[in-house]
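Let's inspect one such protein example.
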Amino acid sequence: MHTRAQSLLLPMESAPLDEMSRLSWPNIRHLSIRGRYPASSSGRLLPELLIRILPQLQSLCVCAAPRNTLPRPPILGPPMTSEPITLPDLQSLMVAYPDPADAIFTVQAPRLTHLSLCDQPRYYYTRRAPKYIPDWFAAPVLSASECLGILQRMDTPLLESIQLVYQADSAEDVLLRHLATYPRLEIVELHRYREHDPDPVPYLHVVTTLSAISRLRRLYLNLDFHEMPPVHDKTLWKYTWSARPWVNFRNARAQEFLKIMQTCPCFEYLALLDPRVLCATGVEYRPAWSQVYDWLFDSDIADLLRSYVIYPPSAFAFI
């Protein structure tokens, strides 16, 4: 199989990485590793495998839940040389809870169009549903400074879509302005978390800064609002009156955001995270100038119908 395989989806906890690293994979183009790191993992085996196959990959996804014994497992490990690795065919890179010093972020990927510095499982659950989180799980979310450092090291002129999960700090403004330097960037997904729980959420400033992205078409936002209800609250999910304060707040913010986005000539829609179910739903809002605008913001029925899942369920269930 190793001589013919072109695409692999592997569970991290049971993948035979040691044996795989001793084989040749001449046709592999797509590699996705999910699940959770095993308790005995030293983080050594994955770099050994990737060093062999990385130059020929078109997409790489490493989204396995880390453990508190190894909170930021290596992808390639620390840079071994001052010369960057060139990945001429890599178009998509998705890494959960990455180490910002990892050599994967020093590679030259001139054809990269999608970059995701994400969280898997979602850090959102750690914040909103701690009772579902196992005690071995680590969630070392990047800071805004660390995200910025990664982006500044990577040369990705063709980037079209990006997902960032970060905790706000003093570098956040520079990070958001940096996104406007990508001439082809069209899709942005941000999961922004407060540095300290009492901190206000400067949501208008965040969205105004993002409106400088000249070709922005779609914006997915989780801004960790104080007003967000707990996850997996079945009463709230039934759209009863107990849900009205959150629905009203979310709809009001969406209207404000769409007004700001009027300056973006290509803008199509935004989606705001709704936390009331464990699979994490995004509610879509389209502006009045959109060709498919056909519903009102204060319509519960339309609100529900326009909901759709924008974040996949966790690689393993917390329930």
Remarks:
- The longest strand covers residues 30-36.
